[in-house]
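Input.
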Amino acid sequence: MPVRDEQDLVLAVAVARRHYEQNQAKTEIAEALGISRFKVARLLDLAHEAGVVRIEIVEPVADGGLARDLEQAFDLRCCSVVPMPSSAPEVRSEVGRAAARLLGRTLQPGDVLGLPWSRSVYDMVDALETLPQVPIVQLSGALAGVREDSSAVDLVRRAGRIAGGGRQVFFAPLVMPDAAAAQAVRRDPAVRDTLAAADQVTVAMVGVGAWEAGQSTIHDAVDAECRERVREVGVVGESVGACFDGRGRLVSTCLSDRLIALSPDQLRAIDTVIAVSYGQGKVEALRAAMTGDLVNGLVTTQDTAQALLA
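Output.
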């Protein structure tokens, strides 16, 4: 570092101490040190750029400690509880914002982010304002009938524009008519390579659905016979198509070979999997997913958190 830069940095530390620790105004500091107030402002900027001053925003604990209690009860790495009921009119946008904030705090340089399609992930991406510069990998195909601007590809593209670290996507449905059709789609190079890249994902944001009508987009997308066959083998919920029972154990079903998504084993291998899910109908599925270590992070609502802890 040049001598002049070293002198400026020493002065920047002195200015920062006066301003942030002693609450002196910039004009007061300028007069005391015999420099202009514009020089004071430049030195404060230098203090930020050099890491001398670090600003941390700490959100107030508005959830009554529910997030902390959930982390302890289910051995979670991270948790955010939105202090409102699941029935509140603005709940989707508020949960989406909470998920976006939690993701921003969780991602670190060197991470690889994985995003599947789900309503809750859509709400989170819609609320994103900033992300570290990490690559993003699409984890599942799209569901039929979903708006084009909220498809799996679009979610990854939008998040990728914010992160600026590159993205890997493919065009394919999430649920195929049968195993043979799914196998043919998986041979497509873009699908094959992107799903293989899921092995590199370190952080994933996912939805968790209960195996009931209206509680899982995949449940609602398949025929009645398939729904019943999945239920008969003890499935209580799914995440990115990975079905699990009441103890959180992965269950192979008639649906497994029809999905275009990362495998259940790939999902389990991801270091940090954060579920964005809420509502009384999903409590059993969420509890099972956390108990079985399928997910180790959670964004949910106050009433759902209370039910999980009951």
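The first helix runs from residue 3 to 21.
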